[in-house]
Design a protein that fits this description.
The protein is an alpha+beta fold. It has 2 domains: 37 residues, no CATH class; 65 residues, no CATH class. It contains 4 helices and 2 strands; from the N terminus they run ββαααα. Helix 1 packs antiparallel against helix 3.
């Protein structure tokens, strides 16, 4: 027999200077798993190759290490380290991250930012 765990959460929410008291049942299915022992997926930002939560030089070093490895990363590791979106982790991905880190006003590291940078370097309009 399967047991479902329920937790009752009471939250006070301000609505037009009034407080609304809500009762929300939260079960193990509510958080996306079939058991409380299932891991909750953690998603990293693109560029955070070492999973520290920050994008810094350590991530560029990790991308270089992944590029030099015989086997390419898969899944989430590939998604956060493949900055140019070509499906593989290369030295070029580390270069993109270093370019991002050298400009304090740079936008988030994403493939579309990379392509705008490439167009500007080639003399095209961005």
């Amino acid at each position: 027999m399967k047991h479902e765990i329920s937790i009752l959460i009471r939250a006070a929410v301000p609505v037009c200077a009034l407080f609304l008291l809500m009762q929300l049942p939260v079960t193990d299915k509510f958080i996306g798993g079939n058991s409380l022992t299932d891991p909750i997926p953690v998603y990293s930002k693109v560029g955070d190759a070492d999973g520290s939560g920050f994008i810094d030089l350590a991530d560029a070093d990790e991308i270089r290490r992944l590029a030099a490895a015989k086997a390419q990363p898969e899944g989430e590791r590939l998604r956060v380290a493949d900055l140019d979106g070509d499906g593989t982790v290369t030295e070029q991905d580390a270069g993109i991250l270093l370019l991002f880190l050298s400009d304090p006003n740079a936008p988030d590291v994403t493939p579309d930012v990379y392509y705008r940078i490439r167009l500007n370097q080639a003399g095209g309009a961005a």
